[in-house]
Amino acid sequence: MHSTHLLLEEPIRMASILEPSKASFFPAMTKIVGTLGPKSRSIEVISGCLKAGMSVARFDFSWHDPAYHQETLENLKAAVKLTKKLCAVMLDTVGAEMQVVNKSEKAISLEADAIVVLTPDKGQEASSELLPINFDGLSKAVKKGDTIFIGQYLFTGSETTSVWLEVSEVKGDDVVCVIKNSATLAGSLFTLHGSQIRIGLPTLTDKDKEVISTWGVQNKIDFLSLSYTRHAEDVRQVLPILCLLAREFLSKLGDLYQTQIFAKIENIEGLNHFDEILQEADGIILSRGNLGIDLPPEKVFLFQKAALYKCNMAGKPAVVTRVVDSMTDNLRPTRAEATDVANAVLDGSDAILLGAETLRGLYPVETISTVGKICAEAEKVFNQDMYFKKTVKYVGEPMTHLESIASSAVRAAIKVKASVIICFTSSGRAARPTMPVLSVVIPRLKTNQLKWSFSGAFEARQSLIVRGLFPMLADPRHPAESTNASNESVLKVALDHGKAAGVIKSHDRVVVCQKVGDASVVKIIELED
User: Fold this and answer.
1) Is 228 left (phi over 0), alpha (psi -120 to 50) or beta?
2) Stronger pLDDT, 48 or 506, i.e. the higher one
3) How much is the pLDDT for 239?
4) Could you give the maximum distance between any two Cα atoms of the chain, in Å?
5) Which pLDDT tens digit goes with each residue over 496-514?
6) Which of 20, 151, 227, 436 has its CA 20 to 30 A from that of 166?
7) CA distances from 233 to 242, 338, 487 (A)
8) pLDDT value, residue 518
């Protein structure tokens, strides 16, 4: 992977650092994905998360049952109505995740330098000496000296809630390990991750398929996060089209044909075949927790910069995880974490995904607000002009019709220093320029000969993971290619929305991109008082 660093815009005025951050309707152009769970599932807390800047709600099926997540989703719907904030839904699959099963849910204390045995016998009781796991092939996958991490959601190996193990020997189906740090494991399930160990578990499990075909169909999910997307060595010619196979599974279910598939890259296998996966997926989630274990520490930043650059040039959304772990228990991030969030923005991330910080963290709303503020400050010094030029150069010529129109709109907006671009669309797609893009999604009336329905809600919500793109659903009676005055009325609504959001002010210039008949038009308007 090769990456070209996006330099900061110069000069940065030192005085601006001392200026207080200003609140706005859009906390940042970079989006925030929040994982909903025990500490963030009430209507009150979800409403706070939406107001703070969460635009995508993630439901992690690695834990709890569909009924529990359905209750949370109903609360999300109520919060959306209450706050009038649009929010997309992401279903996160379990995938090839190894887990330690603790049926009694009693806390397990592990002491450094002691011995613990990992066994596939799930009938055994979990203890300080024996940990039953859900995978019977671990003994065949590991060797002496291999590293294994275990913990509930977080497993850095340096905290008291996760443990770092080193394989000392293999006895039949059991794996004997030396404990490298003292820790207490609490809860019913703990994730187990083997560093650079190939695991022969399916990426889309039977449980995943059941959840997608029931909970996913029922709730018409916007995004499917495909955990542990990778390229298995023994089926090299099959797994490059992993995302396509998952899409075929979704399309058979009818209502989910529009669901976007985000490949979650979590290990070396996925990283080695990143280009093939990127080509098939609708977007990428960089799971830095697991990858941070698989990669040497000095290589982590390189993979992030290279992967984000590739996603940017391919025009596909990229999401970064594990940025403010300390805010799970603290109200303020560390200096390193604050810098990490900003660097993710400067590297080109579309969204920041918060996991434990919002799922079981003590300060979910404050965490979203803090991350949003850091993103907004980083965006001020992001060299958008260089980014735009690199993107245009990468796309090359001849451009497609849509690429040409989008490029013209962005170039015009940069030249006239427009405060916002307003794009009329029925697909929800738009470019990613310097300024916010108000994507006016025009619903389309369609029928399957049994019933009539409007499309557009899916497209609008799926814009909520793309940096700088802010959707609004228009009146379906005003088609995007209208040639009459209806376009002006929709434009007025969009301008009023922009004014209310604080992104449009008197005397601002606005670039409008829309279809008039068979032609695509880019026009510049200047607002009066």
Assistant:
1) left
2) 48
3) 35
4) 79
5) 878 877 778 888 899 988 7
6) 227
7) 13, 38, 54
8) 72
Tokens (6 digits) for 355: 């996991």
- For the stretch 4-9, contacts whose Cβ atoms lie closer than 8 Å and that sit 24 or more positions apart, written own/partner, are 4/309, 4/390, 5/305, 6/346, 6/347, 6/348, 6/382, 6/383, 6/386, 6/387, 6/390, 7/383, 7/386, 8/346, 8/381, 8/382, 8/383, 9/381, 9/382, 9/383, 9/384, 9/385
Q: What is the pLDDT of residue 514?
A: 78
For residue 29, CA distances in Å to 13, 26, 377, 432, 495 come to 22, 7, 10, 10, 18
Structure tokens of 351?
Answer: 């969204």
Q: What's the CATH fold of domain 98-195? A: M1 Pyruvate Kinase; Domain 3 (2.40.33)
CB 441 within 8 A of CB 459: yes
Contact assessment for residue 101 and residue 132, using Cβ atoms and an 8 Å cutoff: yes
**What is the per-residue pLDDT for 88?**
96
Nearest to 327 by CA among 361, 352, 360, 353: 361
Domain 22-96+203-380 in CATH 3.30.2350.10? The answer is: no
Question: What is the reported pLDDT for 218?
Answer: 86
- Classify 266 in phi/psi space as left (phi over 0), alpha (psi -120 to 50) or beta: alpha
* Residue pLDDT, tens place only, 110-132: 999 999 999 999 889 999 999 99
User: Under a CB-based contact definition with an 8 Å cutoff, are residues 66 and 34 in contact?
Assistant: no
Report the pLDDT value the prediction gives residue 248, as an integer from 0 to 100: 62
User: Mean pLDDT score of the chain, rounded to an integer?
Assistant: 82
- pLDDT tens, 51-91? 999 999 999 998 889 999 999 999 999 999 999 899 999 99
How far is the C-alpha of 215 from the C-alpha of 217, rounded, in Å? 6
Task: Decide if pLDDT at 238 tops 50.
Answer: no
Q: Which residue, 184, 194, 89, 191, is CA-closest to 128?
A: 184
Residue (of 152, 159, 187, 192) closest to 290 by Cα position: 192
> Please, are residues 434 and 399 in contact by the beta-carbon 8 Å criterion?
no
| pLDDT confidence band for 486 (50 / 70 / 90) | low
3-state secondary structure 287-323: CHHHHHHHCCHHHHHHHHHHHHHHHHHHCCCEEEECC
**CATH hierarchy code of domain 384-527:** 3.40.1380.20
Report which of 246, 189, 224 is spatially closest to residue 65, judged by C-alpha positions: 189
26, burial (CB in 10 Å: exposed 0-12, middle 13-18, buried 19+): middle
pLDDT digits (tens, 9 = 90+) for 340-398: 999 999 999 999 999 989 998 999 999 999 999 999 999 988 887 788 778 878 877 77
Rounded to 5°, angle at Cα 438 from 437 and 443: 130
Residue 237 is predicted with a pLDDT of 31
Question: Comparing C-alpha atoms, which of 219, 232, 36 is closest to residue 137?
Answer: 232
What residue spans define the domains of the chain? 22-96+203-380, 98-195, 384-527
